[in-house]
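Researcher: Here's my situation. A collaborator sent me these components and asked whether they could plausibly form a single complex. I don't have experimental data yet, so a predicted model of the whole assembly would be a useful starting point for our discussion.
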Amino acid sequence: MSNIKGKVIVITGASSGIGEATARLLAQNGANVVIGARRTERLATLAAAIRSEGGSVEYQTLDVTNQKQVQTFIDFAHKIFGRVDVILNNAGVMPLSPLEALKIDEWNRMIDVNIRGVLHGIAAGLPLMKKQGFGQFINIASIGAYTVSPTAAVYCATKFAVRAITEGLRQEVGGDIRVTLVSPGVTESELAESISDEKGREEMKEFRRISISPNAIARAIMYAIEQPAEVDVSEIIVRPTASL
Ligand code: NDP
């Protein structure tokens, strides 16, 4: 029997891109997926598509910058299915710009969604997982968690932070709770659409020519989940073959 079947997998930022592809793949493999994001209509459409293929899915509107909403989201999953096996902290934004453009609101938005959003997921899920005696956090970082590039200082800082938080969590919880960091390279999604700065937008256009499918990241996430309980895949980097 697949190690995915029957698992309750909660996904933030599932209305497009990597989150959406992962929800589809895991549901196709028998998981109960619980999907959240701000765009409720997109979630409803995705849920209908998953159900039409016989998959199990529930959805709830979610803004990960709001701790209460994240707690309600995790509680919603737990109430319906009686357990939570995996929390995939995937929601993220990437409005790139050079620091000198002083897009302070965008810096704060990245910090709020990319860092605080992940912390909110941990805060909402950790007590439950400790009580259950099992669980897995999968946090989505980026290749930007390892190197910094122009226009991406703040974005990379948030992803360095996600990597640090994930490693710290792994060291602290150990035992029955698994902790995984998945770091994608450039992947087809709507992520670059939030770039308001012209320079950041131009740089990204060139960079995104070699994008890989979000399914490639979904498969890496599934790999980390389907390992036996005693196997903790701590870190995976998936990038286009063509990257430098
Ligand atoms: P998308 O823009 O397609 O997806 C981002 C998702 O995050 C959307 O579902 C969006 O939904 C959600 N989101 C944004 N803000 C919030 C919020 N405040 N609360 C809840 N959900 C939110 O991009 P990707 O699929 O590429 O991004 C997924 C993750 O992968 C991100 O963490 C990103 O940083 C990371 N990543 C992506 C790479 C790439 O090249 N695509 C490379 C490296 C990492 P909604 O707007 O409906 O809320």
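Model: Some features of this prediction you could bring to your collaborator: The two ends are 39 Å apart (CA to CA). The pocket of NDP is lined by residues 12-19, 37-39, 42, 62-65, 90-94, 113, 140, 142, 184, 186-187, 189-191 (CB under 6 Å).
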